Amino acid sequence: MINCRKILELYFEGVSQRTISSSTGHSRNTVSDVVQCTKKLGLESLNDEMTSPWLESFLFPEKQAVEKGYFPVDWEKVHKELQKKNVTLTLLHHEYATEARESGKIPYAYRTFCESYGKYAKKYKLTMPIRRKPGQIMEVDWAGSTLQIIDRSTGESIPAYVFIATLPYSQYSYVEAFLDMKSANWLIAHIHAFEYFEGVPETLVPDNLKTGVTKALRGEPVLNEAYRELADYYHTVIVPSRVRKPKDKPSVEGTVGYISRQIIAALRNYQCFYIDDLNKQIFKSLEEINTINFQKRPGSRKKVYEEEEKSHFQQLPQTRYKLAEWKTAKVQLNYHIQVERMYYSVPYDYVRENVDIRQTTDLIEVYFKEVRIASHKRLYGEIGQFSTNTDHMPDNHRSYLEHNPENNRKWAETIGPSTLQFVSSILEMNVEKKSLSILSTLRNLATRYTNSEMEKAAETLLEISTNPTVSVLKSILERNKKRKQNQKTDSKNHTNADDYGFVRGASYFGRDDK
């Protein structure tokens, strides 16, 4: 057995390989092999867990003895395959067992297979800490440190908050500064990150900040509605990290520190007056970070992303997500809600109910228990404007609102030309308020008569009067109605007089004609 620990202890102390060979009793070739494997695997120091047997299995895995009769496992291949989408240890063990039986060998049991891989992965972790699958996760967070922009008019320093999105597999990152950390900028930052990566990952891992998570419950956190809607639009899933568990999103936590040193600290004395100018400098530094080569791995963040991870991302939708913001409001007694000092109607049945409001740049939508009950074009300009849908009003309110000269003329047209002429004369001969009052009486009167009766009475009224009034019209209608009833009575009596038949006579009933 090779005393690998003693060899490496002397090597890390700067002892020559010839002296190490003499001290340990191993040949110079053995010492050279140990040193070369150590350099290749990037091992730079030892800890208490690294015993000689552990080091030998780590440095020379191909030399490890295979139990007699058992089919050997290529752990490096297993580790690489496990990084692929939808690949699990169960599937890899099934493939391994099938291959073993075809070769006439005995496969390891699933439990032994998993335990052995766990030991291998623990060693592998020392040189390649990437454990995520490509295209699976995007970790997002706000940096703790801020940058500054200067107000031109006052010279005051305004803080700029830095958003960071990182892909754990490739460590490819996106960084952008905003003037606040409100929900709108949080969503805009995600949209810009998706467009920068030219795709969408399977899962988003944010912190438990209010713009992302409304209630940080242990079992199932309640997401901010606007954030959930964005995730639905881009067909991704939000899995918030646990409270006070930064290791749930280690990549972005590490990137926050790295970005703070490489970008935020570098730009701490940079003076600018616009957020766009600041972001230009951030993007310039970000490009350098993403394209610089790794120290212990081949390639760069950008190269690894483009060659290995980008193909696993979902495609972006053809149109960009239209930013929406959600609020809650209580329906007032006038069946309107207030949004930024503008008023929008909802059906009067929801008075005094709490409703959810989804607002975009051009639309206001109102929801009650996840059902949309109203929508309006968003109002801008002078405050205090109303957007009212007449269908949302009670019947008596709607009747009052629709009782105007134009609607009265339209109503008269449906009856006939004489009625229209009569209504027009009322509107022309009186002030509007008095005219509407007279027309209200007229329309109530019309509910008791047919359109033909109203039109005939109006025609008679216009013939006999130069100053037609509703009272005269009412008299004509009553007279016409009475005349019609009399005609029906006379017609009935006439029909009874002309009606005759065979009569038996009094004698038939035993009575004389006397």
TrEMBL record:
<dbReference type="Pfam" id="PF22483">
    <property type="entry name" value="Mu-transpos_C_2"/>
</dbReference>
<protein>
    <submittedName>
        <fullName>IS21 family transposase</fullName>
    </submittedName>
</protein>
<dbReference type="InterPro" id="IPR012337">
    <property type="entry name" value="RNaseH-like_sf"/>
</dbReference>
<dbReference type="InterPro" id="IPR001584">
    <property type="entry name" value="Integrase_cat-core"/>
</dbReference>
<feature type="domain" description="Integrase catalytic">
    <location>
        <begin position="130"/>
        <end position="310"/>
    </location>
</feature>
<dbReference type="GO" id="GO:0015074">
    <property type="term" value="P:DNA integration"/>
</dbReference>
<feature type="region of interest" description="Disordered">
    <location>
        <begin position="479"/>
        <end position="499"/>
    </location>
</feature>
<comment type="similarity">
    <text>Belongs to the transposase IS21/IS408/IS1162 family.</text>
</comment>
<dbReference type="InterPro" id="IPR054353">
    <property type="entry name" value="IstA-like_C"/>
</dbReference>
<feature type="compositionally biased region" description="Basic and acidic residues">
    <location>
        <begin position="487"/>
        <end position="497"/>
    </location>
</feature>
<dbReference type="InterPro" id="IPR036397">
    <property type="entry name" value="RNaseH_sf"/>
</dbReference>
<dbReference type="GO" id="GO:0003676">
    <property type="term" value="F:nucleic acid binding"/>
</dbReference>
